[in-house]
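@channel sequence for tomorrow's demo:
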Amino acid sequence: MIKHIFFIFLFFSTFFAEAQYNSQFNRRQNMRSRQPMATQKPRAPKINVEKAVGLIFYNIEKVSKKIGIKETSDTYLKVFSILNSYNKELKQIKRINTFLFSEGKSKMEAAQKEAIENRDPTPLRLANKEVTKTFKPIISIIEEKDKKLNLKLEEILSAKQLKKWKKYKASVKKK
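structure tokens (generated this afternoon):
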């Protein structure tokens, strides 16, 4: 009986000693693997010029569901036509300014790459100022179209639906 207790005690003590040894070994190994990661270069975030300018295309079915308009109602048809024409106008703006968008994106990516390599954000700031200066007329046109859209929807929607519309619009712009 004493032999069995002694054997069980010996077995558990070696088991716990092995577990402690491995945990210390793993800690040292993890510390070694973390050091090279700190020297890695950070990744540059993706640049979406259309979103930065304010080009937001609304999905009509999603909007009607969020606002609470039934497809059988007359207001749905009016909202459908208004949003459809708004999306067409924005697609036209996007098509006309495609070259400017691609040029601005390439400038920002080049500036990002240079800023990451040199660890100096000044080229990124300069490129950002230059790109925003070229996009100002486009942004003003889009804001004007957005105001017209809101005015048209104010005429059609109820106060509750309008409040839901503004909330939905703000959430889409944040993304």
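heads up for whoever presents: The first helix runs from residue 2 to 38.
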